């Protein structure tokens, strides 16, 4: 079998060091000159390997200091809904959640408008923080119409996510996504363990089952740890 190109071999070597945690986040990687000597290749070959890993989010360059292993950004598809627990586990990270609140409320005006219900109607509300390797990656605020998920408050959301439960009980029909960059409110910043001057990605989501509007959610993500992606066939 033909060997992979030399730049790919260098990439594979560096990725293996990172994924094995031999080089944790913040580790300074060998210089390009050192890699040239180690692999007996040109500076151009090494530069391509390192540049690719910078572009792919494995490494970051700091002027005059060197190249370092960085915290990779989690990524979710913008045009789909996936279970965040499975996303995190699929990246080889350990998932867990922390339930901040789970209760019934009387819908305020903004929630009533989002769910298309009468002002003051009973609504289920959950607030959950999702973690990847003990690092908070998402704060999920969700409001659910009890008419379509009457047992929502009875669920143990430390073992199942709201997304898992709702998809299994209210088959997904339509989704609506809106994304904005914001500075987080103080309580959200505290839950995400970031400063209030650090940008967040806020995903507004509404989901329908057949023609019924079932839930509305605000999903807050730290901007330096998360990104959203979309792909469309034209």
Automatic annotation (TrEMBL):
As given in the record, the signal peptide range reads none
**Keyword DNA-binding recorded:** yes
Q: Which UniProt keywords apply?
A: DNA-binding, Transcription, Transcription regulation
| Entries under InterPro entries matching the protein | Bact_HTH_transcr_reg, Chorismate_lyase_/UTRA_dom_sf, His_ut_repres, Tscrpt_reg_HTH_GntR, UTRA, WH-like_DNA-bd_sf, WH_DNA-bd_sf
Molecular function (GO) terms for this protein are: DNA binding; DNA-binding transcription factor activity
* PROSITE patterns to which the protein is assigned, alphabetical: HTH_GNTR
The entry's protein name is Histidine utilization repressor
The gene is yvoA
